[in-house]
Design brief:
- The protein is elongated, with a radius of gyration of 20 Å.
- It has helices spanning 2-22, 68-74, 79-82, 97-104, 112-126, 147-154, 158-163, 181-190; strands at 28-29, 34-35.
- It is mostly helical.
- The termini are far apart.
- A two-stranded antiparallel ribbon has the order 1-2.
- Strand 1 (28-29) and strand 2 form a beta hairpin.
- The chain has one domain (39-199).
Length: 202
């Protein structure tokens, strides 16, 4: 019985941390159904979409319909919360399932389509099977793009420079041709940064 109480307390702590940390869970008052004042996140509420509605969305279909517009847009989760290695590594890294399950152990989804996708994550976690995400952004092997330098130079909104406004994308797609040297050169010209060949080709 003591274990159940501890698990319940831990789950409550995660939900409280999400609500306080991201300020995105709407608060209701009493049984009247009246809502408290809207948070900033309410202004960017992501549209309801079932997986069946995704046929016309840009970008490849993923094994789990992960909504960046909900996580980064509606709930204001910073990119670096999930892509935690981006500020210290050349690669941004795919978030670990443990990161996802930090919230989704207790958050099951608000509608049937969300619940279906979160169940896929929970099942993969229970079976110890990694999710085989489809990679979207590639660089040629002879070009080096150290993410940590760009995050440091461009600040917290650095991701949008190359990847677009991810917080409004139901499904991620390639906004800019990041594998085209002209894209990189244009950015370096705008910011008066070195264009020496050895900066990227080493």
């Amino acid at each position: 019985m003591r274990k159940l109480v501890l698990i319940g307390a831990g789950a409550g702590a995660v939900v409280a941390a999400v609500a306080l940390g991201f300020g995105a869970l709407p608060l209701t008052s009493g049984s009247s159904g009246a809502q408290a004042p809207k948070t900033v996140a309410d202004s960017t509420k992501a549209p309801l979409l079932a997986r069946a509605d995704t046929g016309k969305l840009l970008g490849p279909r993923q094994p789990i319909f992960f909504r960046h517009d909900i996580h980064a847009g509606q709930y204001k989760i910073q990119c670096q919360y999930c892509h935690y290695s981006v500020a210290v590594s050349a690669e941004p890294g795919i978030p670990s399932m443990q990161t996802c399950m930090g919230c989704h152990t207790v958050i099951a989804g608000s509608d049937s389509s969300h619940k279906v996708e979160i169940k896929k994550l929970r099942d993969a976690w229970a079976q110890k099977k990694p999710v085989e995400w489809v990679r979207i952004h590639y660089l040629a092997r002879y070009a080096h793009f150290p993410h940590m330098r760009h995050i440091k130079a461009l600040g917290p909104n650095a991701c949008q420079t190359c990847h677009g406004d991810v917080a409004r994308m139901p499904q991620i797609y390639k906004v800019n041709n990041v594998n085209n040297m002209g894209f990189c050169i244009s950015c370096h010209l705008q910011r008066n940064v070195t264009r020496d060949c050895t900066a990227c080709h080493y």
